[in-house]
Amino acid sequence: MISLPAIGRCFFAISMIVFGLQHCVFAVLRTAGIYGPPWIVRSPLVAALLGLVLAGTGLCIFVGYKTRAAGALLAAVLFVYVVAIFAPRVAASHATPVPGRVALSCSAYAAQHW
């Protein structure tokens, strides 16, 4: 019988492979006048390299080849992605008003103090 952690590892690895292929497809195809995924404001080369890293580490985790090293590389790449790309965009968008942000903040505050 297959254990639950093995099934979870397979689902995680498959999702990383799909995300990597999605980055590569977006990097190759020109969609809506931009190269790369819409959530990455960089060159298509960066999107393709990120896609290869995601797909490669997902494949290594799936087949069980150097799983710890692949997991460490994946964690480092995702951390750099969040710090270099995602966090500055969130910080810049925080100053601009977004409809519903007040309601979202109030509901999060209420849920926190429930």
Question: What features would you highlight for this structure?
Answer:
114 residues, globular, 2 strands, mainly alpha, two-stranded antiparallel ribbon
Task: Report what the structure shows.
- It is a single chain.
- The protein has helices at residues 4-28, 44-63, 67-94, 101-112; strands at 30-31, 34-35.
- The protein starts with a helix and ends with a helix.
- It contains four helices and two strands, in the order αββααα.
- Strands 1-2 form a two-stranded antiparallel sheet.
- The longest helix has 28 residues, at 67-94.
- It has 114 residues and is mostly helical.
- The protein has one domain (4-112).
- Helix 1 packs antiparallel against helix 2.
**Mean pLDDT metric:** 77
The helix tally amounts to 4
Into how many domains do the coordinates divide? 1
Distance between the termini: 42 Å
Read across the widest sheet, the strand sequence of neighbours is: 1-2
Provide a compact summary of the structure.
By secondary structure, this protein is mostly helical. Helix content is 75%, strand content 4%.
Blueprint (SSEs and pairs):
Elements: H1 4-28, E1 30-31, E2 34-35, H2 44-63, H3 67-94, H4 101-112
Antiparallel strand pairs: 1-2
Helix pairs in contact: 1-2, 2-3
